[in-house]
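Intended use. Records like the one below are meant for learning the mapping from a protein sequence to its folded structure. Do not use them to infer anything beyond what is encoded.
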Amino acid sequence: MVPWSFRAPAPTIEIPSGLSPTFSVIIAVYNAAAYLPQAIESCLLQSMQALEIIVVDDGSTDDFDRAIAPFLDQILLLRQANRGESSAKNAAVLAASGDYVVILDADDVAFSDRIEALNAFAIERPDLDIITHDDVLTQDGEFLRNFFNETHTFPVHKQREEILKRCFIVNPAVKRSAWIENRGYDENLRIGADWDLWIRMILSGCVAGAVVEPLVEYRQWGGNLTSDRLASFASRVALFSKTQLRDDLSASERIVLENSLVDVQRRLAWEAVIAADPSARSALSAVFRNSRQSLRTRSRAGAALVTPSALRKWVFARRDEVRETK
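Structure written out for the chain above:
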């Protein structure tokens, strides 16, 4: 009996167990020399070894060469001019030879049984295109929470709708063929390219499963992209707006998507106002123009565009709404 619990949609046809697949771990690096050795070491200390570990240096300007030197005979190293994380990960996938590519960020640490757990699930369910797992999230070394919890669970039903509401995939193993077929990360998205790819894959028919137990320590630092809430919400507006252009959404899926866009537009406007960011006016204008926003929200946003006092009132009202939903 395996020591892990698995969750996935029930197969639509009988799926016999498969053979043990191969796994390529991919690590994209940009100015993460302080953390990279731990990430690589965690991959080398696995109870079941990956086929290969591919590290892509995305034009780092820190002490990358010193950090990578002890591992040069144990990894495949690629170098490129700085073109962004999405470009680096796409390059790693193209260079990989494993059946699955397994994502690990350069500042994260894999638990020692990660590949073994992914392999066990892949054998049991060879029909899955994406195998994610729980993660332990830490902030500057302090435990924050698990990725999956009572309010953020892994869905086994209606994955097409659920992926339009929230990203329930983190640091997954992805069938290399499915990644390439779906054109990989959109290199025009600075943040959220992973969620965008999972949306495209699941809407194209791919199925995701999850190992319930945590297999990675997902480490956040003061300088992480994920700490930039304003940029994060702006990226969600971009990827939801992009997804609206699809012509293969059902009526219910389109409603879910439009509701997600309505919510994130409000959040973006509020964050921009709080930060006194120059984008605040355009964010408020987007809220005001969206007919799916409530009349009260549109009225507040419109008034906030006109007078500073109304702007302050809108901020306090939004803060109260956010507190009520927590």
